[in-house]
Amino acid sequence: MADAALRLTALAEELLGERLPVRIRAWDGSESGPPGAPVLVIHSRRALRRLLWKPGELGLARAWVAGELDIEGDLYEALDLMASLIWDRGVEAKDSVHPVRDPKVRAFAKGLLQLAGPWLPPAPPPEEVRRRTGTLHTKRRDKEAISHHYDVGNDFYELVLGPSMVYSCAYWEDDGNLEDAQRDKLDLVCRKLALKEGDRLLDVGCGWGSMAIHAAREYGARVTGVTLSVEQAAYARKHIAEEGLTDRIEIRVQDYRDVRDGPYDAISSIGMAEHVGSVRFREYADDLYALLKPGGRLLNHQIARRPEKDESAYHVDEFIDAYVFPDGELAPVGRTVATLEEAGFEARDVESIREHYALTLRSWVANLEKNWDRAVRMTSPGRARVWRLYMAASALSFEHNKIGVNQILVVRPAKGGAARMPLRARDWTASATG
Fold it and tell me: How many Å is the Cα radius of gyration of the chain?
């Protein structure tokens, strides 16, 4: 009798204490759950073995990446329903399903074992970062982490990001499109930095060179871009040459900690600080402060998490750490601003653009889904699945205010404390005073 789906549903509902909002289809063809709901498809019992041996998010992630789990129906709706059931139940409720002594957990594990069979779990998918050793955020380890995320093929990123090749939150109008929104974001950064002809701009984590090109072409800046990704640098140099801007832009494969040719008039750091880590963030702030001339501005564009009641309890998301951003860390925006000011900067403006990132991510997911077969050929089925899940889940996190993104504008004060900023906030191009 084909009844695996019914048994799984009963086990899950007994553990969680409420009805499952999604439908389950099991490997034996059986189905159970509310009609019309998104369907969680379990293609193989291997998925259950992964969950038994690695309970929680990482076990589920491995099954998803390996193609043993899938979703039929609206991906966003399914993730939203499952998040509200499990991850949004509150810390106490979430923790209560983990202790081995809990009879509900023991009953769930026993039932799962009967369905999964007594075999060892499959090996992790090849897309998973292998266990890393050594101190966090050394130059070597950071370079390996950046390579894992960014050196997966420029052609793949073109499919996802579109012609702008900007891998950070865009800045949207109500009826805008992705390319216009990314151009507007780059222009917003340039205006906040008050760039003008001949200014020296350091673009930290320059990606594929889009910010550097915009600043040089539209504002006449002389730009130095640094990245740890060899593939990004090669793409950026080629694009810069095609734009005829090689006399204005230099792209280096270099750690920001090794930049020593300041002072710069301005620094942009867009979507890079998430890789720095809490143990290095003050060093990051000190280094950028030293590279700026007095009166120079830094625009730090960074994803933020919500503060924890107990900050020592913060831990990096297992799926993100294993498959997307190894060693990446998020900090509350208040902590980021405080650290920048501790380094000597003066914070002049903080702009939240959280909703803009949800729109950006949904556009990237649409690009990936539209070009799915090509994306799989360019990378691997597992890699494409990683990106689809990561971007869709992240879009929901931004929409629900689980995480945010902020542009933090700070200045290195000049002699006597002069900030050389306009009197009216957000009037970025007005004449400087002081």
Answer: 24
Structural contact between residues 282 and 343, judged by C-beta atoms closer than 8 angstroms = yes
By C-alpha distance, which of 328, 335, 325 is closest to 300? 335
Neighbours of 101 (CB within 10 A): 6
Say if CB 406 and CB 353 are below 8 A apart: yes
Query: Token digits for 393?
Result: 């889940």
Look-up: residue for tokens 């709706």? 77
Q: CA of 227: how far to CAs of 145, 235, 253, 275, 421, in Å? A: 12, 12, 5, 12, 29
The answer to whether 325 and 274 have CB atoms below 8 angstroms apart is yes
Q: How far apart are CA 278 and CA 336, in angstroms?
A: 9
Residue with tokens 């897309």: 127
Name the β-bridge partners of 216.
Answer: none
Q: Which two tokens stand for residue 314?
A: 């913060």
User: Three-state SS for 28?
Assistant: coil
Inform me whether the pLDDT recorded for 431 exceeds 60.
no
What confidence tens digit (pLDDT) does each residue in 227-277 have? Answer: 999 999 999 999 999 999 999 999 999 999 999 999 999 999 999 999 998
- % of residues, the chain, pLDDT over 70: 90
Count other Cβ atoms within 10 Å, centred on residue 389.
22
Q: What is the pLDDT of residue 94?
A: 41
Tokens matching residue 297: 């501005």
Angle, CA of 179, 183 and 187, to the nearest 5°: 170
Q: Hey, how many other C-beta atoms are within 10 angstroms of the C-beta on 54?
A: 17
- For residues 142 and 275, give the distance between their C-alpha atoms in angstroms, rounded to a whole number: 8
